[in-house]
Amino acid sequence: MAQSFDIPDSTDWLDTPLSLLAPLENSLRCQICKDFFANPVLTSCSHTFCSLCIRRCLSNEGRCPTCRLQDQELKLRRNWIVQELVEQFQNAREPMLSLAKKEAARLANGGDDTQQPLAKKRKVGQIEQDNEPEAAESGSQRMRTRSRGVRVEMSAQVEEPQIIEDSQDDDEDFVPEDGLYPCPLECGLRMKEAAMFSHVGVCTGQKAPSPAKPQVTFRLPAINYSLLKDGQLKKKFRELGIPEWGNRSLLQRRHTEWMNLWNANCDSRNPKSKKELLKELTIWEKTQGGAQIPFASNADEIARKDFDRERWSSSHDDDFKRLIANARKKSDAQIRSTIPGASQGLKENASAPARPMETPLEKSDPVVIDSDGH
């Protein structure tokens, strides 16, 4: 049984009452990967794409995929407003879509839902009688509406806000009851009494820095591969910490992909670590790099010295004949198009029944040859 995948798409809104949200969601998706914008950037021609998607396109073609104008990676700028719109829409998408699908199902069933009973209505006179005891209170204002004449009471008394004073002495003297003691050198660490003496001997009095997620602060520049030899290029790979195996063409493609991954990560609000980027590079190696499964190529088989040409031609003889017949039909059609009335005459001849070919001897009288040769 084939496995089915439910991939979110802008067409999910078409069968719901909120079908107008389909073009809105489509405008928040990248036109290259068809997914929501991931770290959107703005090109010099004012088109928005994912940072990684447009960097890959520019490294291969150097043109914008939408308008085909020339562009450069250095001209890309972050589009923060689109990033915020995408995040807010993604947070609200699931609840809105579930409500829209429920409403579509209700309309498909004919809208026969149980309605809640309405609240009982009271007469205007009864409402006025209920409000008369309240009208006797002092310090109140009365206001009569034009529609029903219901008196609304508004309190004139304003409650004064209570001010609670905060004591800072209690916060300074607070000590958590966890059985630990602070370092006397004020390094910010707390420990048990048995470990205090060994810690004081090595403590410098400086607070330990809190572990922070590594941030990418610089971008990788593009390099001219023609100016670097193989040894220099592999040395560059060792400095970057990426694999250096493979031929020169593979090395150039790997460096381009690593540069795109690294620079796109610089555009992220929450950059990934280098270890995570290396995992993505490994996935690229298995799908498009040197570690991908090679496919059988007919060109490699034909180039071999022990290639059997006769067996190849006999097995593909029908294909050759079909190609030759198609080429002849195409050339005949081109010739007929250049001669006026040729195609119409050929059609008439094709529709007429075929007749046997008559020779001149069949039309003329029989020839008699005498003895003198006359």
Automatic annotation (TrEMBL):
GO terms for biological process: DNA damage tolerance; DNA repair; protein monoubiquitination. Residues 225-259 form the SAP domain. Transmembrane segments: none annotated. Residues 30-68 form the RING-type domain. It is an enzyme of class 2 (transferase). The keyword Zinc applies. Gene3D superfamilies: Zinc/RING finger domain, C3HC4 (zinc finger). It comes from the Eukaryota. Belongs to the RAD18 family. This is Postreplication repair E3 ubiquitin-protein ligase RAD18. It comes from Penicillium atrosanguineum.
